Amino acid sequence: MSIRPRRLIIAAVGALASGALMVGCAAPTATGTQSTDKAGGSLVYLDAELSSNTQLQSSGTWQDSGYITNITDRLIYRDPATGELLPYIASDWTVSDDGLVYTFEIVDGVTYSDGTPLDAASVQRNLEWQAYGDEEKGIPADNWFPEVASVTSDEAAQTVTVTLTAPYAPFLNVLSFWRTSLVADATIDATLEAQSQITGIIGSGPFVVESEKYGEEIVFAKRSGYDWAPPSLEHQGEAYLDEIVVIPVTEDSVRLGSLKSGESDLIRYIQPSEEAGLEAAGITVVGIQGAGNVNIWDVRQSAPFVDDINVRRALQHGIDRQQIIDDLYTENWQVATSTVTPTTFGYVDLSAELVYDPDESNRLLDEAGWTEVDADGYRTKDGERLHLLTYVDVFDSTAKPLFQLVQWQLKKLGIELEIKETDYANYSTILANPDVAVRRNGWPEADAWVRQNVNYNSTQSNLYGFAQADETLDGLYAAQAVATSDQERAEIVGEIQRHVIDQAYGLPIIDDTQVFGIQPHIHDFGTTYEARPWFYDTWTEKK
C-alpha cells in the first residue's frame, strides 16, 4: 500500500494558509505512478467552508453533513439516480397498514470504528436518541423525526420496532438522511462539545476520522474491514482510497489555483464564470443537482411592505429568471419552475405562474398604492420609499452577483432592494432582524416537505414571518405528513407548491446546483441523493 507522502500534504496546507499557491497555472504532469488498480492513494479535497458543528440533531451546514456521510452508515440507502429506498444497515423492513408500526431487520456483523457492535440494541438507542434528544446535555430531539411512542428491539431476531403516535409519511426518507446516521454509544454518551467536533463522531462508515487540526485539515482514513455497503451497489468491501485530506480554503482564487496547479484533487464551490477556464485547463467540472428545495427567496412578512400580497406578487413577476441564467450561470444550472426541483417527490411544474411580466408587476404596484416616484426613480406611498432589505447569503458562492442582478431588475419597477453583507458567524443572528424582507433559502434534502414544514409552518420556524398563521398552509403541511399513500401525499404537496406561489410567500430563482472541479486522474466521484459528496467508490490513478 502506498500513500501520498504526508510532507507534501503538510506543505500544501502551509501554502494554502499563506495564499502562496500558484494561481492560474496549468495542471502539471502527474509525478506519481499512474495505475488502473482502484485500491490505494490519497485525495486532497479543498472545501470552501470550515467545519462548524457535527452534532447530528443540531448541525446543518453543508460541509459537516458531507463529512458525516462518509464516516457513518444509515438504516436505509436512497439511490441517487432514482430516489428508490433500498436496504443498507436495515436488510428489510415492514410498515403496518395504519402507518404506525415500522419493523426493521438489522444486518449481522456490523461494527463501529471503535469495535462496538452496530446491532439491534444500538439501532434502538440511536432511534430513541433521535426521537427524544438528551435534555440533560442540551441535545434536542431531531425535528425531522415523528412523534415516537416507543422503540423496542429483539436481540435474537435482530429486529427493531418503532411505534409512532400518528402516521408519518416521510419516515423512511428521513432514515436515509445523513442527520439520522448511526453512531456508537461512545458518541451518544459524549458531551455536547465532543459531539460537535468531527473527531467525536464514531460511525460504522467506509472512512474514519484519523485526525483534525481545526481550521487547517481533517484527515479521513479508509476503514479497515468495512464490508456492509448497500447490497445494491456493485462495489462491496473496503473503500478504494487510503485517505481523504480535507482542507478548508475560503478564498475562491486560492482553491482554483491549487486545482489548476495540481496541488489538490477536488474542490467545491466554483463560480460559473470559472467553469470554462477550468475545463480548458483539463479539469473536469461536474454540476450535481440534488432533489429538494430550489434556490428560493423567502419573503418575510414581518418586514415593511411585503405583508401586502400585491407587492409580493409584483416581486414574483418582476424577476427575470432566464436573464439570471443567461447572464450569470452555465448549462449546469436551470431556472426554477416550482419551490422544489423536478426530481423531488410531488413536483409540479408552475413555470406559467412564474413568468417574467413587468407590466403585471407595475399594475400590481399601482393597485397597492405605490403610484408616486421620487427623484431617484423609486416608488413611494405616503412619503415612504418602497424599500426592501436583504443580506447576501454566505452559504451560496454565487449569491452576490445574483442578488445584484435581481436588485437591478427590481429597480426598473421602482423597488429599492438594499443589499448588505455579513460573515458566517453573524449571518443567522442578523437574519432574525424582522426588517429583513427577503432571504435566500433552499437545500437538497432527503425529503423536501419535512424541511419546508420545519421552515415555514407557523408553529415551527415560521420563516415567512407570519403575524397570523396561514391555516391553509399549516394544514397542508400537517396533512402531507400523515398521508398513507404516495398518491394522496403527492396531491397534497402539489397544493403546497401552488399555494406558496399563488400567495408569493417564496420567490423561486434557480434550481440549486453543487459544482465540483475534479482532476482527471480521479475517477467515480459520487454524491448522495441530496448531492453531498460520497467517496466510497472514488479512486485515483496516482498512488
Derived structural class? alpha+beta
Low-confidence region ranges: 1-32
Level of helix content?
A: 25-40%
How many strand elements? 26
What value does the Rg take, in angstroms?
Answer: 24 Å
- CA distance, first residue to last residue: 8 Å
Mean pLDDT across all amino acids: 92
In terms of DSSP E residues, the strand content is 15-25%
Largest sheet: 7 strands, mixed
| Shape field | globular
* Separate helix tally: 16
What strand line-up does the widest sheet have? Answer: 8-9-10-1-11-22-12
Pfam family, one: SBP_bac_5
Protein name: Peptide/nickel transport system substrate-binding protein
Family: Belongs to the bacterial solute-binding protein 5 family.
GO molecular function, one term: peptide transmembrane transporter activity
Could you characterize the architecture of this molecule?
By secondary structure, the chain is of the alpha+beta class. The chain contains 16 helices and 26 strands. Strands 8-9-10-1-11-22-12 form a seven-stranded mixed sheet, sandwiched between helices. Strands 4-5-7-6 form a four-stranded antiparallel sheet, covered by helices on one side. A hairpin with a 6-residue loop joins strand 2 and strand 3. This is Peptide/nickel transport system substrate-binding protein. One of its GO terms (cellular component) is periplasmic space. Keywords: Signal, Transport. Residues 1-26 form the signal peptide.
Helix-strand blueprint:
Layout: H1 6-18, E1 42-47, H2 62-71, E2 76-78, E3 85-87, E4 90-95, E5 101-106, H3 120-132, E6 148-154, E7 159-164, H4 171-174, H5 185-189, H6 192-195, E8 207-213, E9 217-222, E10 243-248, H7 252-260, E11 266-268, H8 272-280, E12 284-288, E13 295-299, H9 309-318, H10 321-328, E14 334-335, H11 358-367, E15 372-373, E16 379-381, E17 384-385, E18 387-391, H12 399-411, E19 416-420, H13 424-431, E20 438-441, H14 448-456, H15 471-481, H16 486-502, E21 506-511, E22 514-518, E23 522-523, E24 526-527, E25 533-534, E26 539-540
